[in-house]
Write the structure tokens for this entry.
Amino acid sequence: MEPHRPLSVASKLGRECRLEAIYLYPIKSLGGIALSEAKLELRGLQYDRRWMLVDANGQFVSQRECPALAQLGTDLREDKLAVFEKQNPQTCLHLPLPPPKDLPQGTVQVWGDRCRACLYGDDTNEWFSDFLKARVRLAFMPDRTLRRVDSRYTPTQMPVSFADGFPYLIVGQASLDDLNSRLQQPIPMSRFRPNFVFSGGLPYEEDTWKHFTIGHAQFLAVKPCARCVVITTDQDTGTRSAEPLRTLATYRQKGRRLLFGQNAIWLGGESTVVHIGMSLTKEA
């Protein structure tokens, strides 16, 4: 194995960076959608993690304790959000967009945050419960619900969806390539569930970023992303293995955290759409 590399990277920049891929995850912990372009909102990409499944106590359900969620895919189809079994795509649920305005409201919890959400009815909930063999309920975050990011890492209290902590996650393809060079079996980028993937640059260059732009849209990098058991989950089958956490622990550990990717917030403004191929620039 190569000598361990420090978390910091050299100041010399790599090749020109461009936006290589965009991913949207409408329902927290379910499969994502690859997009050619996407609309930016302060709390994340439009529709990103605006839905999540909760248990009988309103506590969020994720792949951490329920890896079978990875077997459910999502898609945007005209005015509907489609949810389907990846191994049996004909088994599909369609949710109207936008969600019905008459859904009842309740309180849900994601990590330490309790917030109001719209709750779907029995037919929708039974579809998910039957697949997972556990009672769950689908919740939606309306615009009037305001959940804020951790103010320790941002200059202002920015909003966030049901994402773990921050509205956006960006990863360099070079970082995954470097990790895969250390693994016996390469893994896809889907394990890390980013919103943005960029080409060019050095491995882990995103660790050192503060301000960066995609096209003319301005972002603030706020915190490297600490990784958990989710990245050991095959995003098609839901099966788990020791990797890549085991390998990341040999060279990407800081304190008790294993870092991969960079959390970010969009600073707002007139540039509200990003598309693949846009140049990505950062402050030196």
Q: What stands out?
A: The mean pLDDT is 94. The domain at 17-282 is CATH 2.40.33.20 (M1 Pyruvate Kinase; Domain 3). The chain is about 10% helix and 35% strand. The CA atoms of residues 37 and 148 lie 26 Å apart.
